[in-house]
Amino acid sequence: MKPKRRTSLPGKPAEVRVPLALLSLLERTTNDLITLPSAALDALIDRTLADIGRLFGADRAYLFLASDDGTVFDNTHEWCAPGITPQRENLQGLPMGLLPWWAAEMMAGRGIVLGSLDELPPEAGAERALLEPQGIQSLLALPMRWRGRFWGLAGFDHVAQRRVWLADEVAVLRLVVSAFAQGFERRRLDARLGLASTVFHHAQEGIFVTDGERRILDVNPTFTEITGCRADAAIGRLQQEVLPHSDGVEIRRAVAAVGLWRGEIDHERADGQNQWLRVTVSAVRDERGEASGFVGVFSDITRLREQERQLRQLAYHDPLTQLPNRVLLADRMRQALARSRRSGELLAVCLLDLDGFKPINDTHGHAGGDRVLVELARRLTAVLREGDTVARLGGDEFVLVLPGLSSQADCELLLQRALAEVEAPIPLSAQVTVRLTASVGVRTVPPAPDDADTLLRQADQALYAAKREGRARIHRFDAEDERLAEQRHARISQVAEALQRGEMRLHYQPIVDLRSGRTLRAEALVRWARPGGPLVPPGEWLPLIEHTAVISQLGDWVLATALEACARWQLVQPGLGVSVNVSARELCDPDHARHVAAALARHPGLPPQLLQLEVVESAPMTALPSAMATMRACTALGAAFALDDFGTGYSSLAYLKTLPAAVVKIDRSFVAHLADSPSDRRIVQGIIELVGGCGLEAVAEGVETQAQARELLAAGCTLGQGYGILPPVPEAQWIDWLRQPPRPVVP
Prior knowledge:
Elements: H1 20-35, H2 41-55, E1 60-66, E2 72-80, E3 94-95, H3 100-107, E4 112-114, H4 125-131, E5 138-146, E6 149-158, H5 167-202, E7 206-211, E8 216-219, H6 221-227, H7 231-234, H8 239-242, H9 249-258, E9 260-268, E10 274-285, E11 291-300, H10 302-316, H11 326-343, E12 346-355, H12 358-383, E13 389-394, E14 397-405, H13 408-423, E15 426-427, E16 433-434, E17 437-445, H14 452-468, E18 474-476, H15 479-500, E19 504-513, E20 519-529, E21 535-536, H16 542-545, H17 549-569, E22 577-582, H18 584-587, H19 592-601, E23 611-615, H20 624-637, E24 640-646, H21 653-658, E25 663-666, H22 668-672, H23 678-693, E26 697-700, H24 706-715, E27 719-720, H25 731-739
Parallel strand pairs: 17-18, 20-22, 22-23, 23-24, 24-25, 25-26, 26-27
Antiparallel strand pairs: 1-2, 1-6, 2-3, 4-5, 5-6, 7-8, 7-11, 9-10, 10-11, 12-14, 12-17, 13-14, 15-16, 19-20, 19-27, 20-21
């Protein structure tokens, strides 16, 4: 028998037994990639896939390109043998997580060679479910890699019959596929070069170029737009003369040391207006390594600075009264507690709650109630000492932090002055005056608790006692308050037992496109269905368990139940997601991501991207690293995060910049007065612009009227939820809602 011809490839220690036609194909492909323009790459790949398919009797040859972040695949090229139905249009935007084993093999550069589907490992269940319905008998899939970058994969399927791929054939096809990756890299570089030629004139940033003496040689049009200085007035002058604060001694030292300086400068435009510029100055070095010139790039961040100031105000202050909010209050309390421990001085933390505030809202509307709260905030701040803190927790609750007291009598005197200010008449108009009283719970230090949260919680227990005693009075934390705390613990046990007995239920509220009415996802909201009675509202029991292990147990149940429901919804509306609230305790639990992974694993057919986790309150700043670790781990699983109640004090600007969130939910307190409050409209507009600028999605909560929806759409927010769309409903009613045609919220 005549032996088969063996052909050696460069770099191989042994001869390779492959068809000459394949070697010729490799040579032609690599030559064409070098000589042909990058615009011809797609045609070259199509031709090569067809040649390979015919050469090996394949039924389909195809290419998948990975997104830049490596999370999504698109079928970009496909060749099919006669009688084989193309699949390219159906294989766009495929999440890598849908085929985890396949993706792992490709990313690791190993490739997949299957003589039959029987060779699939047990962990490739999702891959088997995809391949078997297509009738695939054998396949070869090879990763496209070049210089460490993963570009995607090439694949070759056999449907009519099985085929055994020889190792030598696979080795040569790897070289062909690698050549594809080189082609994509070359096309990317060509595109960059083409862009570079137009960046200077079309960049949205101002650009200036100087010589080694820092004399300006050229500026782009945006330079003039930002600074107001014409090109002919800038060219030839020293950089320091045109941009005075961009060429100081410290900047020169930084550029000389590392070749680069970045920073922000204040600048006066040619027309006299002040602005802030974010500037980068880079050295251009010659072949000897000496600076032969400099390039400066800058952008106008004046508006961003103003937005940051506004958002910083929102982050640490109550938007209505401008008093410190929970975040700033926690910091002030920690400082006061540390001072008291060092000095031994008396510290009082007082929780003040207005008596009978609800009738004012009912009688005079929210605008009247807001005027009362603003006036009381002003009075309380004025009557206390300079080092004291007045904060607003929300609603009609205020916190007074009184450090450096010499005696209990000092505390009593300050509180009586504060209550006198509360009880003084408050005019709402020339004809209307209202009167109020307040109840105060006081916790004094020493003795000091372990943390500021405990201090505030014990003040709350004392306030509860003051309300119970008849209101309009001051109550100090004592043993009776501890007894009441024990009652609360008993209530917490009841909630835990109700969870074990299966008395919890989930209701669902839609998040919709305000224009089309299309439902995108549902927020899962828990209710307690006590036997023989009405549903117990979460406000009556959920706050009791927020800082206990029961909240984690409830969270696991909600997550599992919501995912089971979401899997059922796919039969009615494929792609519909579910949103689940996550408590601060869960967020800071290092095991929480594993709980999420286990819940998702129970539904392998449900894309993880359909799960959204809502952070309902901020974790303590000291626990931020663990919270960040949990969020990153859950994001890696495919789940997305939403920042809930944005603007009320927990969702600070630092969180928005730092946390890996995809969605920001605008708090209902801003939406409630959106149609009749210019200040709320400005706040919402600022939030939407900042959220959009960060690449996040904005969702408005508490949408109850078409007027609110119209204002939101006008401000650029297209997504919303609220009772005006649909209140939270049991799953049966939720399914009925999904089966109805979408109705625009704003006709």
